[in-house]
From TrEMBL:
The lineage of its organism: Bacteria, Pseudomonadati, Pseudomonadota, Gammaproteobacteria, Alteromonadales. It comes from Shewanella chilikensis. Pfam families: EAL, GGDEF. Residues 327-460 form the GGDEF domain. Gene3D superfamilies: 3.30.450.40, 3.30.70.270, EAL domain. Residues 471-725 form the EAL domain. GO terms for molecular function: cyclic-guanylate-specific phosphodiesterase activity. SMART domains: EAL, GGDEF. This is EAL domain-containing protein. CDD domains: EAL (cd01948), GGDEF (cd01949).
Amino acid sequence: MPVSLANQLQHALVDVFSDSPLITLEQNVDRALEIITRQLDCDGVFVLAAGKAPGRLKTRNLYLKPQFNTLQGTREWGLGNMPFFRNLLRHPKLLTLDSIEELPKEAQEEKRFLRQWQVRSLLVLPPLHLGDTHIAVGALQCGGEKRWQEDFVNELSHAAAMIGSAMELTRIALALLASECKYQELFQQLPLACGQLDSSNQLTMMNRIAKQTLVAADSQDLLTLVREDDKGILLDTLAVVRDGVLNQAWCEVGFLHGQELSWQKLSISRSKADKRTLVLMAEDVSERHRLASELSFHANYDALTGLPNRVHFEALLAKVLGEEQAPPVCIAFVDLDQFRVINNVSGHIAGDRLLCQVAQRLKQLVRKGDLVARLGGDEFGILMHFCNPESAKHIAERICQQLFNHEFNWENRKHGVSASIGIAQLEPLAQDIYTVMGQADAACRLAKEQGRNGWLLYDSSDPRLKRLYSEMTASVDVLGALANDKFELYFQEIRPLEATDSGMHLEILLRMYQEEGEMLSPAIFLPAAERYNLASRVDRWVIDHLLLWGNRHLELWQSLSLVSLNLSASSLEDEEFMDWLEMRLLAEPELVDKLCIEITETSVLSQLEQAHRLIELLKPLGCKLAMDDFGAGFSSFAYLKQLAVDYVKIDGQFVVNLCEDKADQAIIAAMCQLGRQMAFQTIAEFVETEAIVAKLRELGVDYAQGYAIGKPRPLLALSESPPLG
């Protein structure tokens, strides 16, 4: 799609290099360096170029602010000839020296040279190679030390690319002027597909790469090569350049070559000789589109079985629910019986093989047009269109019989296979998909409780199903609480056992009120939120309302030592949530340094990459990170060294019987010793008695949390009666 120039610096450089004939472009490099120096607020910019001798550098251009120019000539600067900087060509990398004192011992000669020129800070970009042009662009600060920021490096890199392009274009232009034949040869050898478009959009003067890439002939209409769906955006791009709205624009379109499709990024610019003639450059981006398509597939399909995943299943179900006069639809939840036994006895590879076999068998057993999805683990979903409950029963019965007769052999072991199936009908007036999914889930659970290898249709008059379904409806209650603000923030004190904090350390908890005003246990609604992909919305509510409370009680907030809150595992892998979290925290500079984000050990073990991303987000803002439920898994210590956590919360299973259990005491002592060596502090959960408090203090635990310290209270109570001191 059409794009504009990035910023003022690029506009200025374009003006410099476009005002002169091509062969004199390099004469404006000095002027460009002056503009870069002024725009980027540094004291000088220079260009080092490869010399004729291999491995040699020479100063090609240098601009210094007048007050720092020693009048030794702007092209006679010896830095490029010194060993340390010649080595940059052999081992290219970004060199950032906030102070030249950071130069290594072997660069003493360079250090003395820079001091003579009053240089205090130095930056040299990695060498840039464009054709036969090899340059390294750098910047320096003489008036004082300068910290080179990422934005500065990016802007200088863009400018370096334009300078290098100008130098390379100049070299090419001079070669072209020497011989028209040589010009044609160089044009044909360019690695980019290049050509021209006349006023009728016919391709002319294409080089060899263009003919190969676009599979086109001279005088062929460009639009005849492009997919029908992309012709509109291509015509719009051509129009904005021809009409002078933009000097250059680009779009990505699909080119049809018989039955094959390739994707090309077309860069369109105006010809100076003829304003109706356009210069076209094409870059093959088919691989990127293929990868994007592959990522889309992985986002909607299960990598193991190739079936649609839960996200895709729910999206299709929601689409059906949104249709007017939708046909009768039933869904089924299929849960394999005793699948864990197969995993434990024959291993996970055997379990995966069975899942793939079951996936293929289910696709064969449903009707044409029905959708089979893997919802997670050993659970499958079936979306049955134009299906009444009677038909759904027959399908479920067939699946139970066929799977029961399916033989699964692995390494001379024969495993029995069976499934429990729950069926529910989608009501046309249903408010959301979670009602019917909860009903099918409840029916599946009851079928399993009744002895497995059977199916059950959800019946609201069955008290057993009604009880199970009420547990499922917690997810709906979560949606209602989010919509109607039925959540309330609570807090529980985390008390130091030895050192005295300057303020109270507390953990933020969440409570939910139902329509009748009764409080629903977090043990019910939080797992439901995780199960039905609502956890990230709940986390948003908690973080947003906590920060709003902090703003309203800023003085109280600043008096607190630390404010901890939990982040769910599903939020960690939610890209949209993580982007929102970063922007939300950046908007609260007065609050974030008091925050501590807690993530459970199990979420770290399954989402290590996302945990690293969270650390990269939190640390620059001053936020702390805690690992919750530490010790619940078997890989805890192995992962600790990979994550720079500030606090580790010891799982309650090691705390409740601490006074009697020597093993628990040894484990906690080991955790405390590890904390002292790895610079994190320990917090014990479920501290219910003063005896446990004393034992924890004896073992060296830093903090304690539990009913012996203080019961959870509404956060509103803290603001009404703030702690003393």
